[in-house]
Design goal:
Blueprint: E1 6-10, E2 18-22, H1 24-33, H2 96-111, E3 114-122, H3 124-136, H4 143-157, E4 163-166, E5 171-174, E6 180-182, E7 184-186, E8 189-191, E9 194-195, H5 203-218, E10 232-236, E11 255-259, E12 263-267, E13 271-273, E14 279-281, E15 285-297, H6 303-318
Parallel strand pairs: 6-10, 10-11
Antiparallel strand pairs: 1-2, 3-15, 4-5, 6-9, 7-8, 11-15, 12-15, 13-14
Helix pairs in contact: 4-5, 4-6
Length: 325
């Protein structure tokens, strides 16, 4: 049986599509009977001997390339894109204190493993005690003084947090004395004078000590031993209207407490379980609440230890009479 022949033909010029045509039996027979075209004429081969009589002068020789001159380089001035005219800003070189702050805090954020824990603390009892001290005893103490004293007592109860970390020896150093550094804003930058043995000082002693250190810090009259060292740091921005923030650890200290301002919030009423099994629910009220956030070095303490410290801090500020003992 003669197989069917298939011929592929080029379709329309624009489509370039292939069209399959079936030649059939008659078409295939006509293809077989078509004369075979003669082969193309052979090209005569010229031997190399016949070309020996050709003059060499007739053969063109390419001229050597002309020597190129040394490349020339064009210098372009770098383009400076300035969106603000120079008349509208001023560049001020960083002071020595700013350079030290930049170096130390950059080192802290890049090398110290920070972790953060926060707690809300009611301040109603602290505010009431402040009024009593001022009215009956003519003693003026600030909320920050209560925070410093309460932090010292909490560090006494949780001594693991009253420590520093030595990066060179990879060792933790604990201290029996609580020396709290208090952040003070000055025209040239932030400085942290130290209140030594804070756990043994009264509220009035802390108040007078902090006022003296802050005044001399703003006047640039502190000696190096008064701001170098410390075992714990407190930064309070509540007087500036800041509700909460996160502070950067001041190495080699193991932690820093960021204190926000008090805010009046609606708090749920207390639930009291009676002896007979009944439950008495109190009415919601309004309370002044402060947010304290602890930034701690994970190499020094863990999250559970930080929680113990914040719990102790809340307990002392909730019952400020304990700070008077």
């Amino acid at each position: 049986m003669l197989p069917t022949a298939i011929r592929l033909a080029v379709g329309r010029p624009s489509g370039r599509s292939s069209m399959i045509q079936f030649l059939g039996k008659d078409g295939w027979a006509s293809k077989l009977s078509a004369p075979v075209p003669p082969p193309p004429a052979a090209v005569p081969i010229v031997s190399l001997a016949s070309t020996a009589t050709v003059s060499h002068a007739a053969i063109p020789v390419a001229a050597p390339p002309a020597p190129t001159s040394a490349p020339t380089y064009v210098e372009f001035a770098p383009e400076t894109v300035t969106t603000v005219p120079e008349s509208m800003y001023t560049d001020t070189p960083a002071s020595n204190m700013r350079k030290v702050i930049s170096r130390r805090l950059t080192e802290s954020k890049s090398t110290v493993p920070h972790f953060y824990t926060s707690i809300e603390i009611p301040l109603d009892n602290v505010l009431k005690l402040r009024k009593v001290l001022q009215k009956e005893f003519d003693v003026k103490v600030s909320v920050n003084d209560f925070v410093i004293k309460a932090s010292a007592m909490a560090l006494r109860d949780v001594p693991e947090l009253n420590a520093t970390f030595d990066a060179k020896t990879q060792s933790q150093r604990s201290f029996s004395s609580v020396d709290i550094s208090v952040a003070v804003a000055t025209p040239t930058g932030l400085i942290t004078p130290i209140v030594p043995s804070t756990q043994s000082l009264s509220l009035t002693d802390i108040s007078s000590k902090v006022k003296d250190l802050a005044t001399r810090a703003r006047d640039n009259k502190l000696s190096p031993e008064e701001y170098q060292g410390g075992t714990f740091c407190i930064s309070n921005l509540g007087m500036f209207g800041i509700s909460e923030f996160s502070a950067v650890i001041n190495p080699p200290q193991g932690a820093i407490l960021a204190v926000g301002g008090g805010e009046r919030k609606v708090v749920p009423g207390k639930v009291v379980v009676k002896e007979d099994g009944g439950v008495e629910k109190g009415k919601p009220g309004i309370s002044t609440v402060m947010t304290a956030r602890l930034s701690a070095d994970r190499r020094v303490v863990d999250e559970a230890t930080a929680a113990l410290f914040l719990g102790g801090l809340k307990e002392y500020l909730s019952q400020p009479k304990l700070l008077m003992l």
